[in-house]
Design goal:
The protein is mainly alpha-helical. The protein has two domains: 1-34, no CATH class; 36-126, Rossmann fold (3-Layer(aba) Sandwich), CATH 3.40.50.450. Helices cover 44% and strands 9% of the residues. Helix 3 links the parallel strand 1 (38-40) and strand 2.
Length: 126
């Protein structure tokens, strides 16, 4: 658990492991270095969505090159994906960026998609 949050009384009721990180940024930086991909799989708070967007942006900026996946259990991320689709429809986001995140409701299918990840490079268009 991030020390700052533990000191404020924000403890996860299920997770008991402690990372000893001083900040959320330090915690995320460690994940970006250590993991082969980024998989967001559970309904959770705004911090998870923020981290997803940060990793997606870092991929776009070529700061990292790791697949990103959303396990859309029971359609939990449907509204979020609808917003992203709206960004594409209004030409705020290239369609290729939308499809650079692997999404599936089935965990095995999502893992297969992550294994076959191919980097999406879109020229700067604005």
């Amino acid at each position: 658990m991030i020390r700052h949050y533990a000191l404020r009384g924000h403890r996860h009721r299920i997770r008991t492991g402690r990372c000893g990180c001083a900040s959320a940024h330090e915690h995320s930086s460690g994940h970006r270095r250590a993991h082969h991909c980024f998989l967001h799989y559970s309904p959770s708070g705004i911090g998870t969505v923020e981290e997803l967007m940060e990793v997606w942006t870092m991929n776009r900026l070529s700061e990292i090159d790791k697949p990103v996946g959303l396990l859309n259990t029971a359609g939990f991320f449907a509204a979020f994906l609808g917003f992203i689709d709206h960004m594409v429809d209004t030409k705020f986001l290239p369609a290729a960026h939308r499809h650079s995140i692997s999404v599936d409701a089935d965990a095995s299918a999502l893992i297969d998609k992550l294994h076959s990840h191919a980097r999406v490079d879109v020229p700067k268009w604005l």
